[in-house]
Structures are given as structure tokens and as C-alpha cells.
């Protein structure tokens, strides 16, 4: 607080990022914390609206060639980069099609070493795929049709930047970003504070013609304790909390997911379907010695596991009803192709689990070895719950808690037979989920090493299908194969759950759990 009790950040939207921010360079927007800051500082050609539809952003419209290989984007003519010393006289220049080509090419360029290089892998040429036709027209030229490409272009990796800034700041561009976004960079004291004041020259306006954004800026703090973050929120020093931590979940929420009575008048609870599927993965590569010697190589055993625990009870007691039990395959609720009637997954049916174990030659669990479920500290309680449920129904499961980096290493090297995982959407198309099980994909993303030629054929067919309804039908057929073969045990479809101060208006979570601040109002 400033002297006299006045806030020195009045008018700034304030939040805490407990995991820290590794970089402000969008070419490395791999984590949610980096995506959130990138979304404030930069724009993309297109963006995803609150209905998960692709909407204009830097491009006002686009045309797709008949064969679906060439996308022609028509750009706005009123977009300027933030004022910065990298430009003559320090004044931000107009954004041009050449900036689009440069920014997207930079992601693919090996010298950038972008964590997002995979998004264009096998889809186009670094040399001829990105074309500035003139200053206001940009073309993306693909090797072959790939309908989800518009969703990929909405990712923060595809943020548009000026070459001058990268040339001037080089490796320090990570700490001195220049973009076209609603907020601009002012200061970053790593581990302490990040300040992003409003971009006074931002191009977007609301329906009444008022310039966006409304708030004066964004202030990010970096307290790594979730308990301390909750205290800051209670003291009204931050404006919202993303994700209700286990340390205070029961203090704030009832088991049904609603606020406890004593909190109802004090804050806003905002919930929205979030494109994230939590699951248990089962290694499926039959040539792997871990699989060869395990009963988990038998489909009936994997199916029995899926039937052997109660997802609904899990959501009630462990999650305070945040999220939805995953009873419809791998594609999460919230995506346009999700249909719980078209894809019927597993529910708690202990009798079915018992019958399947009997058929597999393990009646009442006799002859089954100990299955070790690998998880991380954050999900230790969940692992214990699942182990207890499975053990009640004929299995013998123990939990091994590993550091996240080690578990990722184990899954990437196919050394994890039975592990907890999650898949968060990179873009709003089920292809992003189904590609996880395409046999030609390595680990990541195919951590289970699932290999089914029928599945692969459907996946390849779907990528050639430009009609949404036909593509969704193929997606659902693939999801049904995953349910049948059971290389995973889907746990729940996630929900973004935010605690927000009462005075904050126009602020809500969304299916990609992006931090959207353009239309937020503060008193």
C-alpha cells in the first residue's frame, strides 16, 4: 500500500502467478502462465471466441482455396506495434503482412528453438509456406488440407511480433517484448512484479465505439505459496484466484461445488467448462518388456479397471464437484464434437469389472501382480483414492509419487506402465486430443504408444474432411475405439473455477482458460 492507504496500482487488474513466468517471448508460450501474459501483449491472425468459434483478430476475414491448402488472410490496416526504442523515434509502426510471415517463420526456424515448432511440423515449408502477398494480404500455403489449422493460428505461439525488436534485443527479447496487444510492456522484476500498462493506441473498440481495454493495466505478482495467494485475495490485494487449491477448497466450497454460505456475499465464483481431460495412461506397446510381462496387455483387464471405480463419488469428495466425471471417452465436454450419446464411456459397474477379470483368467483378482500407479505430489490424494477403489474391486494397486519432471521423462521414454496424465487443448478441435493416440506420433504426445491401424485410418481420413459434421462423426468413431481398447482410464473433464472480487465486472473464465482482460472493468 502507498502512503496514506492509497493504492499505487489503482485501476490495474492484479493477479498472482504462483508458478512464475519463464519468458515473455510468445515463441515459448508452452505453459499457462506464459500464455496468459502473451495474450495481453500480443495478437494473433485469428482468435477463439467464447463459443469456441474462430473469429477475426489481426485478420478481418480469410478465404480458403477449394482444395483446402491455401489460406488467404486480409489484414486490418489500423494496427500498430507498441511504441519502443527499436523503431525510429521510438514510435510503433504499422503492422504489415511481412510481420505475419516473419513471426510464423520464426517459430519453425531451428535457430529460435521454439517449444511451439511442432505446430507446423509436416504441414508446410519454412521457405514457401508463409507469403506476404502485399502489405495487407498474407497467405499460408499447406502441403495438404488440414482443417484445424485456423485453431493452431489462434495459439499464443502464433503471436505477431516485429523483427526490429528481435534484432535489437536478441536473447533479451524474452524480457523486453514488443507486440500489438491491448497491454504493453513496462517493467519486469523477475520473481517479484510484472507491470503491463494499457496500450493507448490499441485498435479494438467495444460496440459503443469506446477503446479497449478499459482497465489502466495489469500487475502480476509472483508469490509461490497458494495459501499466501489466498490471503492476498482475502485482503483484496489481488482481484482473482485461478483454480481453488486443496489447502482452502473445503473452506470456500460445498461438496456440490457452490460457495459456502459465509462466502456468498464476499466474492464471485465463476465456473466454465475447460478443455482439459484428466486420465490414467496405460502403456500399450506390446513389444515393450514392461507390457509383455503385464496383465495390462490384456484388453479385458484394462476395461475392468475402467469399470472398477466411481468417478462421480471421486468428483464429489475429492473435487468438490469441480469438473464432470469422464464417462464419454477422451474428447472433453466443451468441444463442439463432444457428444455423450454418440460416445458412451465407462461408469462404475463393479459386476462388469468382476466378470471381465474372470474372463481374463484373474477371477477375484487371483494371479494379478501389484500395479504401481505413478503420479506427482499434487495428485497424491487422487492416486490414493483410485488405488483404494481399484483394490476394493479385485486389483492390487500401489501409488508411487514422483517429481513432475521425472514422471514426464519416464512417460516420454516409455518407462511408465501405469501413470496419471492430463491433456489440455492447444486449440479448440478434437484433433488435438485424438492425435495423442495416432501411432505415427512419438511420445509426447503418444505416451501410451497406442497403435491401432483402424484408428490411424480414421485419423488420416478426418484430416482430409472439410465438412465439420462429417469430421465430428469420424472423431466420435475414433473415441469409441479408444473406449473399447482402453489404453487410458478417463477421470474427469475439467472446469475452470475462479474466485473473483465483487467489484470486478466483465470477467469470466473460458474453455481454453485464457486470461481475457480486454473488457474487464474495475471501480
Would you tell me the overall average pLDDT? 95
Percent strand: 15-25%
Low-confidence stretches: 1-6
Number of helical regions:
15
> Biggest β-sheet, characterized?
5 strands, antiparallel
Coarse shape? globular
Estimated radius of gyration: 24 Å
Helix content: 25-40%
Total individual domains: 2
Helix-and-strand structural type: alpha+beta
State the distance separating the first and last CA atoms. 17 Å
Q: Architecture of the largest domain in CATH? A: Roll
User: Strand tally, please?
Assistant: 17
Broad CATH class of the largest domain: Alpha Beta
CATH superfamily of the largest domain: Dipeptide-binding Protein, Domain 3
Instruction: Using the coordinates shown, work out and report the CATH topology of the largest domain.
Output: Dipeptide-binding Protein, domain 3
Short description:
This protein is an alpha+beta fold and 523 residues long. The protein is built from 15 helices and 17 strands.
